[in-house]
Amino acid sequence: MNNNRFADNRAWFLVLPATLLVAFSSLIPFIAVVNYSLQIVFNMNTHSFVGWSTFHDALTNEEFRGALGRQVLFTAIVLAIEVPLGIGVALTMPRSGRAVGPIMVVLALPLLVPWNVVGLIWQIFARGDIGLFGAFVNNVLHINYNYATGSVSAWFTVVLMSVWHWTSLIALLCYAGLCAIPGAFYQAARIDGASRWAVFRFIELPKLRGVLTIAILLRFVYSFKVYAEPLTVTGGGPGSSTTFMTEMLTNTAIGQFAYGKAAAYGLLYFLIILLISYVFYIVLTRVGTSEGDQ
Amino acid sequence: MALIRFDGVAHSYSGHAEKPADYALQPMNFSWDDGGAYALLGPSGCGKSTLLNICSGLLKPSEGRVFFGDRDVTDLSPERRNIAQVFQFPVLYDSMSVYDNLAFPLRNRKVQRSHIDRRVREVAEMLDLGSVLKRRASGLGAELKQKISMGRGLVRDDTSAILFDEPLTVIDPQLKWRLRRQLKEVHKQFSHTMIYVTHDQIEALTFADKVVVMSDGEIVQVGTPQELFERPEHTFVGFFIGSPGMNFIECRIDGDSAVIGERRVSLSASQANAAAQAGSGDFKLGIRPEFVEAARPGEGFAARVTAVADMGEFHLVTADLDGNELKIKLPDAHAHIQDDTLHVQFPSEWLCLYHNERLIGHEVEVAA
Amino acid sequence: MTIRRICLTLFILFLLIPIYWLVMMSFKSNTEITSQLTFFPKDWTLVHYHDIFNSGKWTGSFLHSLSYVALNVAITLPLAIPAAYAFSRYDFLADKHLFFWFLTNLMAPPAVFLIPYFQLYHSIHLFDTVYAVALAHTLFNLPLAVWILEGFMSGVPREIDETAYLDGYSLPRFFIKIFLPLIGSGIGVAAFFCFMFSWIELLLANTLTSSNAMPFATMMSSAFTASGTDWGILAAAGTLTLIPGVLVIWFVRHRIASGFALGRV
């Protein structure tokens, strides 16, 4: 938001409809979840209040901690791969010419595939019997690869699928950022004798900070909420080796009918996302702006 | 001594030029003297930036060669020419401090640290940047930012020319004169060759020793500000420089006089000679609004006045003379106007004769 | 230059080959799929598409998906545009807190809300309708649209508003005649993102429907049966889900670059 705005509280009338709908979609369910989380629900009608102990249970629960650990690991791995790769792809893209349109369409394509279909595509593609990739790894590279039985294979598949699915988002955002850099910056760098690396480090990367902040935040949030894709491919297995937070939560709520537990887990989960997003946001907007400033 | 020499340089962005209209820069031979302060003046799209980018090496001309001294630099990249360029908008490395910005060109060239430090401090002192050296460059005002861009060019020992591409566009009007004065001081102190592109004639005339006027991809005149004002070699220069520009009056030649309507104006001997040699074509007389004089009623030419504007120190009269619009600057116009008619005369020493838009019959041309 | 091109080509192949494999599989017979690996169908068959188009359940579910996506965009944009305008132009009580609260909903994991959503939409008798899904998707789409539009609107100088008011325009007339055309591409981008996130979301859509408004993606799970998986029909259904996305991107292909920057470069 810019700072140069009209002061007028009547603007509330403009935001009111949107606020009411968002409140309906999030506030009412949120209050319900808080209410559940403070109770253990035996069935839909008789419940007894147990308060904070539910939260305490969550933090010491094996299931919760296991899923959270796997979730953090998964998010860290996919961010570490997708962010540099996405920047790299953006740097290789031509800025103009007839190829730009088709390249954009291909890049955006994985983003518009429904999430369970992403899972389906990789489920088929990576199978040893009917999939090109699975057959290639098993029969040509002679590596024993089966995502249904080996947890390493399963992790590899889930990460590769995420890279396939989401790297384009970072690439497209960075490409937009790169296109917005005026030509004079590159010209000045040539006159200053800057190397290709210096141009990237001192011109392109600083100018990409804004879009990269958005990209990393979105990628963090969506990778932390990942559900349908790994579920379709591995079903969370083998064992629970690829069971991430959302799946653990739905299993608890719907599979075990433990609403109170699920609600408490869910609130903690939401809180963790908010907290990490906030930290990311602060770090990303401060980095490279305050250092050296007195 | 010529520092930068253009030998048949021309440029066409399409790469294949067949007719003059295909060129952004028409074929030209031209030399920039070592240590000169040049202004490159012309309207938008006249090819000034193209010419500048050919000097700096950001653009390779599609025809001709560029020489720095005796060295053919046509194929050299910008960093291998001893040139700095300041762009229209401040180009800074946002994530670096002012100090690091200034040191950047030297660090890229692997210069010794102690030498870098000394150079950066010298340049900062000269440009009054000493107090902000530790600050981040991104938070500073446009004037300081442009000084830093300039400093990056000055910091190198080997810089022999600095090119400016409309560098004051983003500076507040009150600060423009200050930066311009600082530029002149830098020029005096280091005698780098400076080429300053602008479309603002005041900027050009106050900054430069020599002004190069361009139009449609061609250099139409090179001269001191005074020469441009008094003897424009092309009607475009007369029109473009001065406020308002030069008056042009269509005429025909008869012996040693020019005829406007029914009345005659006598020409100098050299003008008459040149006109006779030129043969047919369009002839125009040119005279600055400052040099037109009021005549007594009945004498000179009767011009019909269409407007009189009070400009404070003088009146600006707009009048019609046989279908030619005349602008005249007079200290007290109303004293001379009767019944919407003003009698004017054209002092022969300020009268220029143009044949097909080019100045003829003047000693300056002979001397050159 | 050539190294760059090779890298880009490799990445594009990496994106396309899995999709190619899916599409080709949809034209193979089930025996061919399970008996051998072929890069190209030996016998082209349209039997899987034929099965889908002749089943009311499949075609119906495809229409359900399309309608809740369209409804969602139709609900989201008219509410998001005035809200984004307020955030970009006015200073009002608690504006920053409200904006932040909007954004937190982008981060909310839908899984947390499954049970309350189920009960909420049951209690207002919208369960198992496309309206339920369309409304539920506003949870993340409305904040997203407000965020995108606010970025584009802040790029329009405020002087334009002031000039229009001085010229005697009322707020609604200024908005329709002058402002909306100026942020046309921003509205397009917001619509694109709302379409995208509603089309690809499954968890809420699945939870809020059963048989009458079943989304296409849920319908696909019926191809996994106890007697085995009908890979052919799954591949054909998967291929069909790509089509709306491809159509939408094709229409906005020239705006994608600026669009993905959300008006913030």
Automatic annotation (TrEMBL), chain A:
What is this entry's stated membrane topology? Multi-pass membrane protein
Q: Name one Pfam family in it.
A: BPD_transp_1
The question of whether Transmembrane is a record keyword is answered with: yes
* InterPro entries with a match to the protein in the record: MetI-like, MetI-like_sf, Sugar_ABC_transporter
Which SUPFAM superfamilies does this chain map to? MetI-like
Keyword vocabulary terms for this entry:
Membrane, Transmembrane, Transmembrane helix, Transport
Enumerate the transmembrane spans.
12-34, 72-91, 103-125, 163-189, 210-228, 262-284
Where does it localize?
Cell membrane
Where would I find the ABC transmembrane type-1 domain in this sequence? Answer: 68-280
The terms describing its cellular component in GO are: plasma membrane
Q: Which GO terms describe its biological process?
A: transmembrane transport
Say if the entry is tagged with keyword NADP: no
Protein family per UniProt? Belongs to the binding-protein-dependent transport system permease family.
Protein's name in the database: sn-glycerol-3-phosphate transport system permease protein UgpA
What phylogenetic lineage does the species belong to?
Answer: Bacteria, Pseudomonadati, Pseudomonadota, Gammaproteobacteria, Salinisphaerales
Automatic annotation (TrEMBL), chain B:
SMART domains (alphabetical): AAA (SM00382)
Highest rank taxon of the organism: Bacteria
Please give one Pfam family short name: OB_MalK
Record-level GO cellular component terms: ATP-binding cassette (ABC) transporter complex, substrate-binding subunit-containing
GO molecular function per UniProt: ABC-type ferric iron transporter activity; ATP binding; ATP hydrolysis activity
Q: Which residues form the ABC transporter domain?
A: 4-241
Q: Which InterPro entries match?
A: AAA+_ATPase, ABC_transporter-like_ATP-bd, ABC_transpr_FbpC, ABC_transpr_MalK/UgpC-like, Mo/tungstate-bd_C_term_dom, NA-bd_OB-fold, OB_MalK-like, P-loop_NTPase
Q: Which PROSITE patterns match?
A: ABC_TRANSPORTER_2 (PS50893)
Q: Which UniProt keywords apply?
A: ATP-binding, Cell membrane, Membrane, Nucleotide-binding, Transport
List the Gene3D superfamilies.
2.40.50.100, Nucleic acid-binding proteins, P-loop containing nucleotide triphosphate hydrolases
Name listed for the protein in its UniProt record? Sugar ABC transporter ATPase
This chain's source organism reads Salinisphaera hydrothermalis (strain C41B8)
From TrEMBL, chain C:
Q: Which residues cross the membrane?
A: 7-27, 66-87, 99-118, 130-153, 174-200, 231-252
Against Gene3D superfamilies, the record matches this protein to: MetI-like (1.10.3720.10)
- Give the matching SUPFAM superfamilies: MetI-like
Q: Which UniProt keywords apply?
A: Cell membrane, Membrane, Transmembrane, Transmembrane helix, Transport
Where's it found, cell-wise? Cell membrane
Q: Which Pfam families match?
A: BPD_transp_1 (PF00528)
A biological-process GO annotation: transmembrane transport
Annotated ABC transmembrane type-1 domain residues:
62-252
- Keyword Membrane in the entry? The reply is yes
Topological category with respect to the lipid bilayer: Multi-pass membrane protein
The entry assigns this protein to a family as follows: Belongs to the binding-protein-dependent transport system permease family. MalFG subfamily.
- Please give the name of this protein: Binding-protein-dependent transport system inner membrane protein
